[in-house]
Amino acid sequence: MLKSREELISLRESLKKAVVAEKERIIVCGGAGCVSKGANKIFRKFAEIMKERNVAFSLELQEEPHGDAVRLKQSGCHGFCEIGPLVRVEPQGWLYTKVTEDDCDEIVSVTVENGKCVDRLAYTLNGVIYREQKEVPFYKGQTRIVLDNCDKIDATSIKEYIAADGYTALEKVLFEMTGEEVVNEITESGLRGRGGGGFPTGKKWTQVARQTAPEKYIVCNGDEGDPGAFMDRSVMEDDPHRMIEGMIIAGLACGAQEGYIYVRAEYPKAVARLNLAIKQATEMGILGDDILGTGKAFRLHINKGAGAFVCGEGSALTASIEGKRGMPRTKPPRTVEHGLFDMPTVLNNVETFANVSLIINRGAAWYKSIGTENSSGTKTFALTGNIKNAGLIEVPMGTTLKEVIFDIGGGVRDDKKFKAVQIGGPSGGCLTEEHLNLPLDFDSLKKVGAIIGSGGLVVMDDKTCMVEVARFFMNFTQHESCGKCVPCREGTKCMLEILNRIVEGRGEDGDIELLKELGETISAMALCGLGKTAAGPVLSTIKYFENEYRDHIYNKHCPANACQKLKTIKIDPELCKGCSKCARHCPVLAISGEIKQTFSIDQNKCIKCGTCLNACPFGAIKESWNG
Fold first, then answer.
1. Residue 118 region by backbone torsions, left for phi larger than 0, else alpha for psi between -120 and 50, else beta
2. pTM higher than 0.90 for the full model?
3. Which of 400, 442, 399, 436 is nearest to 419 (CA)?
4. Which of 226, 403, 501, 627 is exposed most, by the fewest CB atoms within 10 A?
């Protein structure tokens, strides 16, 4: 256990020397995307091959330098999920893509033993080979500060975090700054909450710090529930100590000695990594009752959420930690006054806390130099949907949609036409081609009826039905409504029923107007922030794609040819041979006929599943769309 600042500094210097002394590092991506494609097997294969070849290597950071050894380690997510599994070789910075177990022997032979790059595994775009990761267009357009450690360190090792200047900000706060100075630094930086609302972090900390209650709490919202979002998950899994350091600093600045991390139970790896990180920090004297011998205390606890989307809302989250049903309450009082256990509480999300140590170390002026005047710093986004370069990115606030989707994201998959992007998940809105030059910051998005949310970006091409997109998100929101307030409970149900009718070809005159009226009512009257934004995807798609709604309602036609209920499946009598295969495969017995005679489909029974299309050996069954 470290009992002084000097002991921590001494340990850090020793660990840094060990890192510098490493001859070479083979870093295998351990992000969920790469692991699903075999990254764990690749990691084990490297170890096996180097043993066979008698290549000296180490799996852990050695405090005593071993300059002749190669370091083999598994880092967190490298971000470029689309081309995984990824392997990077340091210090050259060479990035190998779509690596398989069969490639490991060549990498060891060519790179480790002979110092050459395996060009066939390097990222190639339009005939250009990008050997170094920093030169790959996907990475070159980013500014990675929160995610900087994720693809570099082993998240299971507190020593690696310390070697990467981890806990230097905590040292500074403990020994050089007062709580007031810390709060002022965060305030001056302009850091705003990265959970979606964009509330000024310094203002929240100030409000809690000035409270005179006997207990105060620091709570981290790791309940990342938006479909397609995995930014906070990556930080918790791949760099947990950065988030923990931010929480400790918040506790010291605001006078809190207890912290809670609320994380989804669906993130078992994040829970395991956080538990390990807390155990390591406590054993090292960085957490607990006597931090680095100062007599100051901060303790951390983990609460696993049961998967309720509404627990992403502050008051519902704190109620859940208390063992109550996760439901929002009326405000005021606010969480900063009466939060967890009715005590003043700082509640920020994972990415917000992950920024804190950076600001303390580098200063508010540095942080404000990134981003825009009213939206400082960077923002992480999860790029998903119909995009070429799906993955996790981090860009300065104010970066345009066009830069994100086309420069970093590589454009729409299969070179189809860009149609829209859903930003902010179920609480967000839809942006179109006319918004491509819109800067991604809190204020600019608010002006067009959208929000950053936690940072999910779902890209859609011209074959996407916007009515179905609205229906999908409304179905999610309605299912996740806690049911406490009537506008959200009943309003979302009514909106979903209307949208279901429209995509099934049963839309009626007046449905669009009714959707608008319901959406505006819910937005104005719902109890919590999640309810107030529930209608966002519907209202924004009506605003920019009302013609698609009208086509569905009045022409019973889906312009994107995506709504299954609006298509017709027929048998061409000239091509049908009467083999009966279609009838035998139909799950609802909608096809009838006599052997060697023309078969027919009962349209009242047909569920449009398409099984018969695959069963027919003569291509006699055709899909057709109205319109």
1. beta
2. yes
3. 436
4. 627
